[in-house]
Please model this.
Amino acid sequence: MNKVMSNKLLIALYISPALLLVLVLVFIPLILSGYYGLMEWDGIGDKTFIGLENYINGLQDMKFWSSAYHSFLLAIFSTLSLGIYLVISFILASKIKGSDLLRKIYLIPMLLSSVAIAQLWIKVYNPSNGILNVFLKQIGVENPPAWLADPSLVLFAIFIPILWQYAGFYILIYYAALKNIPESLIEAARIDGASAFQIATKIKLPLIKEVVSVTVVLAIVGSLKYFDLIYVMTSGGPNGASEVMASYMYKLAFSSYNFGYGSAIGFLLLIITLIVTFIVRKLTTPKERIEY
Amino acid sequence: MFKSSGGERVMEIINNIVLLLIAVTMLFPFLYIFSVSFSSVSDVLNSDFLLWPKEWVTDAYSYILGSDQFIRSLGVTVYITVVGTFVNLVFTSTMAYSLTRNIIGQRLILFLVLFTILFSAGMIPTYIIVKETGLLNSLWALIIPVAISPFNLIIMTQFFKGIPEELTEAAIIDGANDIQIFTKVILPLSKPALAAFGLFYAVGHWNSYFSGVLYLNDPSKWPIQVILRQIVIVNEPNAALGGHAAMLEALPPPETVQMAAILLATLPILIVYPFLQKHFAKGVMLGSVKG
Model:
């Protein structure tokens, strides 16, 4: 008995540093975020309690809603791009020669820092001597757009590097799931005369539904919180055309020193993510688990 | 075996071409960076597609490598990567191990961890906590707040659970306590997994720039990615590198300096990647199988 108790103590000892960190660094900030949102505060001086004013302002702030709209656009783009990744993974998993090497190459962008990726793509999009526009001019486009400076294109232009960056990650996840499907199932279907397309859509896809559902949640939540490349490439510009919720929050707090209002926006962002995740989980979780 | 029809053959060829094209788009930017960084000013400004340096110029490299600021930031990054990864592995593995033992409140703890994979409070409260705990302008601000990745923690817990129970039971019969089981049984069996997680964490530390921007005011403490951002985005290579260019006769063009800086900041990872990619891929796969 004593031994068991001392073990429990020891285990509690093991877990405490990590748990303490998780609590201090994640949950307390979460509560603080909601709390700071109730204050008028520049981040340095005294806090003044102003009730729900920040939240009410946030809900009436057109800039916030347009940044939320952009975040949701990103989420839709990302979800659609999962389809592309899925198709690529299907091809990769279908006994292609050199698929090992290809997978390794696909993962490379994931190893790069956001700064390097941003810089790279800023060069690609350079209106006068970027690779993209030089190419467009050579194939006869007279006035190629100024991608990152064009309010109607900038969000799309930023999405391409995001697509590029995360390709390897999602492809690898799908690839692993596809490789987990027992070969016997595929053989059986083939003997029954199913075409490659039928095998892919009627057998493989339903079998990896669960994994797909998880990646949909990951992609949507990741997009709603997305900040990295936008901050480095355009910092929300031109004229707010690529502002997303996280970059708007950053600006409020660290450029305008409006920590109270920024926190309120951050809290709204969290609530929105929670609601969306809940809905998406409800919609995409397969009703019954398929066992094989 | 099954004979593939003509249609399938065509499909196969198209598939191969598509996959290759994607691989090219993944690699092409590196070639471009590489070429520009070694090219002369006139070549960079005058040629449309620069895929290979016409004449080899190393001015940009000698300029960057001659800068104290760049070398110092490289040192800072190596320090953060080594110390940070060590801290990561200690905290993650001890917590993962405790989660494999049946402890009170385990489900609650697991839920709390899972919750943080998807949701976080964001940068403002985290910034304030870093500030209030006195970590501002300290390199620990780049290490402690990211000491545990909940995602990695869950995967490592799963991995530890996969270690046959007979092994730990045998150790218990031999009179081993938890610390001994952990260090003598679990850790040695988890070397490949630890390597994978270590790599994940190390890449994260090497690439981290935003916490540097947020938490460090003193330029002498900036990690390499922050310097890189100064060089390439703020477009002030000379200022970011400590203004030592005054000693040079002519300043290398910012274009080539930027590209050389990107290459130098990325190179260590690209060099290590081929040796560790097996673990890296395994790490991603481990995560996905759990789903």
In short: The first helix of chain A runs from residue 2 to 36. The domain at 63-284 of chain A is CATH 1.10.3720.10 (MetI-like fold). Chain A touches chain B through 90 residues (CB under 8 Å).
